Give the backbone structure.
Amino acid sequence: MKLGLMFANSGPFSNPQLFAHLAQSAERFGFESIWTVEHVVIPQDYKSPYPYSPSGKIPGSEDVPIPDPLLPLAYAAAITKNLKLGTGVMILPQRHPLYVAKEIATLDVLSNGRVILGIGSGWLKEEFDSLGLDFHQRGARTDEAIKSLRALWSPAAASSFHGKHFSFGPVKCFPKPVQKNGVPIIIGGHSPAAAKRAGRYGDGFFPAIGEPDKLEELFAMMSEEAKKAGRDPKQIELSCMGRAKLDSLKALQDVGISRVVVAPPAYDPEGITRGLEKIANEVIAKL
């Protein structure tokens, strides 16, 4: 079981000194990874329901700072040595895959192969509207973007993809990722569509929930879809959100989870140090 830290770039962690302290402390105390979140804008007075909170609203407020998900990870790559660097999640259908392929491959080179690309299809319709994108096409755009990334990161010197939403090639996109099979693509979300997408295309599946019974249902959907696509579902790494408590982690491990991502224990340097050290001693050392 591996532990990661979520929300590494948002709110108070938009402060570079606090973000650096979080990243370096996470590595020091044996955490596997940090994960950044993304919203390019939060439309004022949005009506779309946030799917991860009973209130239907993003925690905090519309004014909470949410820096770009990749630039902080590049910063973390420079000040750590082994910590894995994940997006949790990048809203993939809002970006052109040619840019994503270049940026993620560059980050993988800079970090010597430590990048994990967690992606989602998005939930905030007003954000898509602000970008001039059709919210209802986001699933199809996500699937095509994943296929495009695979093509661009392949060993072939020139890459092509021709779909409804993205079409290019032959083009040359260098550098390639350091990781042999390209940067792993982890599918985020806890909808049936996300589970099926993970089965068809994902190197991993990352529902942002932590209830074992609900996770088992999603994993069954994912496995069925993987088999339909001629893939081995056991090769799809399973992650989820959770709490840094031994009993809950063992329950998640029993349903096949290999990585649990938890919230930072505090929002000040001293609290972060104390909280992460406590988790290291009471949880990580006993996993």
User: Anything to note?
Assistant: The longest strand covers residues 84-91. The beta strands are 2-5, 33-36, 84-91, 115-120, 159-162, 167-171, 185-188, 204-206, 237-241, 259-262. The chain has one domain: 2-286. The chain has a mean pLDDT of 97.
